Write the structure tokens for this entry.
Amino acid sequence: MLAVCMQAYSQDYDLLLQKGTVINPKDGIGEKVLDIAIRNDSIVAIATNIAPSKAKKVINLKGFYVTPGLIDLHSHHFFGTKENHYLSEGFEALPPDGFTFRSGVTTSVDAGSPGWRNFETYKNTFIKHSKTRILAFLNIVGEGMRGGVWEQNLSDMDAQMTALTIQQNPELVGIKVAHYSGAEWIPIERAVQAGELAHVPVMIDFGGHNPPLSLTKLLLEELRPGDIFTHMYANLGSVRMTLINPKTQKLYDYAVKGRERGIIFDVGHGGGSFAFAQAIPAIEEDFYPDTISTDLHTGSMNSGMKDILNVMSKFLNLNMPLSDIIKATTWRPAQVIHHEELGTLEKGSVADITVLSIQKGDFGFIDSSGEKMKGDKRIQCEMTIRAGEIVYDLNGLGSTLWDQQTR
């Protein structure tokens, strides 16, 4: 039975998470039963058998997994009500708090919704008013991810203004290129130039080119080690090369060599960018993702993607080890964006914590083409703690039991 104990007098800790199975990839801790003590917004102790009497509140998490707060490396939160603005003040983006905590996400990284022209609006509207920690890649297009012809405007791709904006705003962690359909390499070249100036990585959403641009050139020549290739398992037909050779069902050499160069391979599931026909053969060659992310927007959450837990569950059913799945949604993305203070459970770190369970049953998982994979495991978020505060509690693990007799 789960128990919550309340103490009325002063203690050393505000909250004690007791007997949870901790997975902390940074320290190589995988599935070890530990207690975690929290005071104010920080973790102040991690050990076995911390005395419950020292805490104001104790939550027994026996049988549950306790991980660092999940980091979604690819999301879209620049919600607005402007026509023809897609994910930059448009209707298809999502305000964060309603779609993050319930999935265990404590840090969400917006993948290029704003550009330098409208980042101030984004910052004042969402970063300053969200409980979720919001970081962002700045779009190389000044107007941001407005869609259509706006993202084809080479004259609005200013490396210097992009870099200057990043240098003046610590919430910006990189640069995004997306949706350009021309035959030129100019957007990528300017993004990399801005990345050099601002000392941040570049994330590339590559596709839509007709004829397709070369993935060999992108991964082995244009991008730098530490830059990010998102939508890694996409299968977009004639407009983008794939990682898997459809004839041999094996990885192309440029995928293997790109990883050897230090390119980061990100899932970025989205509404149209995850195909079992790519993911399963790649995983059979142990080509797992470095980072697991959603590409969260209204189109993806209402199709095959659902949320980050559903994406993680797909990999769990494809036999990716749970510890590696947690690493790909916590410590690894923290490293990629150079925020190593995040994605970890250690004394002194901010108390961003996710409590997970693994449900057993008969489940179906859908890719971007609508094809279904059967699975018998599903990851569920039971509780999310952000900066020491319980912000989501699915089954009331942190609540006292209601008793009609006490009314």
Q: What stands out?
A: The chain has eleven helices and 18 strands. The longest strand covers residues 372-386. The radius of gyration is 22 Å. Confidence is low (pLDDT under 50) at residues 1-8.
